[in-house]
Amino acid sequence: MTAVRVLLADDHALIRSALQMVLAGADDIEVAGEAETGAAAVRLAGQLRPDVVLMDIRMPDLDGIEATRRITAEPGAPRVVVLTTFDDEEYVYGALRAGASGFLVKDMALEEIVTAIRVVATGDALIAPSVTRRLIEMVVKNPAPSGAVSLSTVTGREREVLTLIGQGATNAEIAEQLHITTPTVKSYVSRLMTKLAARDRVQLVIVAYRAGLV
Length: 214
Fold this sequence. Notes:
Layout: E1 4-9, H1 13-24, E2 29-35, H2 38-48, E3 52-56, H3 64-72, E4 79-84, H4 89-98, E5 102-105, H5 110-121, E6 126-127, H6 129-141, H7 156-166, H8 171-178, H9 182-195, H10 201-210
Parallel strand pairs: 1-2, 1-3, 3-4, 4-5, 5-6
Helix pairs in contact: 2-3, 3-4, 7-9, 7-10, 8-9
């Protein structure tokens, strides 16, 4: 099994060291490199071609949002997981628009961050519950224009799946609730992303709220 290669981008050496130590204990993950500035993260992402970039939002030279935008704009770009804190809510939507596939909070257990890296590396997306709440608040404060979200091409079952995605359910939880298999859920998620022009699961959460499903 090929290990997931991770680039750690954080300007705090202690945080990078802590993450390095935890990831070293995972047989299926390896640290490809470290960056202490946003500019360095962009450069190393191009040079090292990691699978996942763990990106701090507040970085010197270039903030995490702009670094994420530049990294994800490249062909075959790695997945980017943004690290945030409770007072960073104004950055969350910006990071989403920049192409981030995950949002984690720094007070999560390090083991949870390891799990998140695995999830995102498979092509899925992951949002910490506390970040989801802030994301929803932003959607409420900035509603889409009437008719901006159309579900006309979405089937009844796909609508059920989309609703559960908006509620934060994982594929396994959706499968259990709808009495279908996890691969079937993945198929529904893939079709929803195609129909709704959503880049990943994070954007499907936004669509679910904009459409009033949650």
